[in-house]
Amino acid sequence: MWLVKGLVWVFVTLVLVCLVAIGALWGVKVHERSRAESLLKKGLWGISLTLIVICLVEFGMLWGLTIRGRNRAQAFLSDVVKLELGKATFAEAQQLALKHGGIPANDGLRCSSESCVFRFVFENKPLTSARLVPYTRFSSMVSVKNGLVVERDILYERQPNRSDPFAYSLTDNSLSSDNQWWQHFRQTGLWRLNVDERGVPRLLQVSLGPSSTADQRKRAYALDLSCLSRLFGCNSPTAVFPPDIPYRATPYYQTRSETW
Question: How many domains in the chain?
Fold first, then answer.
C-alpha cells in the first residue's frame, strides 16, 4: 500500500505545480504571455510524461511483488505434496510452516504433536490491494494427529468483478475407509457444485483417501497458480481447475463421481 500512497502524493504534487504555473501565467504582461504559454505547455507535457513514467514504474513494482508471491505459492505446493500422509512427522510439518510462513490455526488451542493444524495463505497482493485486479487466494491446511501428518486441504479461489466467486477445493486424508468416522463424514470422489447453464461448476471439489489412485492424486495436485499474478484471463472457473479433471456436468445439476 505504501507504493499506492506514494503514487497519490506524487500525483497531487504535480497537480499543485500545474496550478501554480497557471496562476503565475495570469500575472505575466500581455506581450510576454505568448512566450509564457509556450513554456507552460512544454512544462505540462514534461510533467505528464513524468507522471506516466512514474505510474509505469509503480505498476511494475506492484506486479513484480505479486509475481514473487505466486512463486512462493508454487514452491509451497511443490513441498507440501512431498509430505507423505500417515508417515510425515510433526517436525516435518513444523519445518514446512517455518519455510513457507505457515501459522497454527487451532483457534487459540495449544499446537502440539498430538493435535495441530498449520494454515498457509498466498494472495495476489499488492496488486489486489491497489484494486487493480480481482482478488485471488491459494490457501492450504496441514493437519497433524498423534505426531503424524494425516490430512492436506487446499483451496484455490478467485473473486471476479461483478460476479460470483469460483473455486477448486481439495482434501487429501490418510484415514482408512474402514474407519467409521470416515465412512460417516467423508467420501472420496469428485463433486461438481453450483453448475451453470454451460455445465461448468462454480465449485469443483475433490476428496482423496487411501483408496485413491496415484493417477487421481497426480491430476488433483496439477494446479496452475498463474491466476495469482495474471492481469487478465482468469475470469472463468476453469482457470483454477486442474486441466486433466473432468469438470463438466449436466447444466444446473450437481453431481458426484467416485471414479474420474
Answer: 2
Task: State pTM to two decimals.
Answer: 0.77
The answer to whether residues 37 and 122 belong to one domain is no
What the block records as the C-alpha cell of 257 is 463421481
pLDDT per residue as tens digits for the range 104-148: 987 656 789 999 999 999 998 877 766 667 889 999 999 999 999
- Domain of residue 13 covers 2-61
Instruction: Write out the H or E segment, with its range, that includes residue 40.
Output: helix 30-80
Q: Are residues 43 and 147 in the same domain?
A: no
23-57 burial, b at 16+ Cβ within 10 Å, e below that, comes to eeeeeeeeeeeeebeeebeeeeeebeeebeeeeee
Instruction: Give bridge partners of residue 117 from the DSSP assignment.
Output: 143
- Burial (CB count <10 Å: 0-12, 13-18, 19+), residue 1: exposed
